[in-house]
Design goal:
GO molecular function: metal ion binding; phosphatase activity; phosphomannomutase activity
Helix content: 25-40%
EC number: 5.4.2.8
Enzyme class: isomerase
Structural class: alpha/beta
InterPro entries: HAD-like_sf, HAD-SF_hydro_IIB, HAD_sf, PMM, PMM_cap
Subunit structure: Homodimer.
Order of helices and strands: EHEHHEEEHEEHHHEEHEHEH
CATH class of the largest domain: Alpha Beta
CATH superfamily of the largest domain: HAD superfamily/HAD-like
Shape: globular
Number of strands: 11
């Protein structure tokens, strides 16, 4: 029997940068009663707070079973002594940040995909990861469901993101440049992906690959969840948070 269930966030537990649906909140709380749970995402910790931490259970004994891994596992948080504690953070130096930010700005301009209207920052320094969001980081916060629709329609087959990635990557060869969310490009140190995050999680918990089940909406070649599958961890591929909810209903009903 699995001991820990790990999830991608956007597209798997909720629409992009959106809050959990009440159905998912109830299932997530129920899951914590029986399993340890991990959420791993390219997003920053503050986005975890916005999307689900303020909605789910406040029971300390349940929150202590939750593992938070923002920025693809380069940061790790646990609930201890009544609050979320950062256990480690693998941050860039200031010089590395400058080089990455410049390359992302140049790459977006050269691609021809820069848009006239953006919402919030387009390049966000997440300390251990730097992310380009072509439409802006706050499009969903400002526009709600319409923002989700615009994001999903901007690059449905992923070709625009891949073109930007291919322009940026040669500019900063010492880093990994990855097409990530619906409208985003992530830059990390080499070797940083969700498989790396799972290794860090196993190191922290003592669990093995066979103890973990992972769910994600990008478990396809080129997708940012695929590395977990290639790493030999059992996975369930989903297309939306509704698919995930359906799978979780089956899991909790069998307990």
């Amino acid at each position: 029997m699995k001991k820990l269930i790990a999830f991608d966030l956007d597209g798997t537990l909720a629409p992009s940068k959106s809050k959990f649906d009440p159905r998912m909140v109830a299932l997530f709380d129920k899951l914590l009663e029986h399993f340890e749970v991990c959420v791993i995402s390219g997003g920053k910790y503050e986005l975890f707070q916005r999307q689900f931490l303020t909605q789910i259970t406040t029971e300390p004994h349940l929150l202590s079973r939750l593992h938070l891994m923002p920025t693809s596992g380069t940061r790790y948080y646990r609930y201890e002594k009544g609050d979320w504690q950062e256990k480690y953070a693998e941050n860039f130096t200031s010089e590395q940040k400058k080089a990455i930010i410049a390359a992302l700005a140049e790459g977006l301009k050269e691609s021809g995909y820069a848009v006239a209207k953006t919402y919030g920052e387009t390049i966000e320094d997440r300390d251990s990861q730097i992310t380009l969001s072509i439409l802006g980081q706050e499009i969903v916060a400002e526009l709600g469901e319409e923002g989700v629709r615009i994001k999903e329609a901007w690059d449905p087959d992923g070709t625009k993101k891949l073109k930007i990635r291919d322009i940026v990557a040669p500019k900063i060869p010492d880093f990994t440049v990855r097409a990530a969310g619906a409208t985003s490009i992530d830059v990390t140190m080499p070797g940083i992906d969700k498989a790396y995050g799972m290794d860090k999680l196993m190191e922290a918990t003592g669990y093995s690959k066979s103890d973990i089940l992972f769910m994600g909406d990008k478990i396809v070649p080129g997708g940012n969840d695929y590395a977990v599958y290639e790493h030999g961890i059992d996975c369930i591929a989903v297309r939306s948070w509704e698919d995930t909810a359906y799978a979780l209903e089956g899991i909790v009903s069998a307990i």
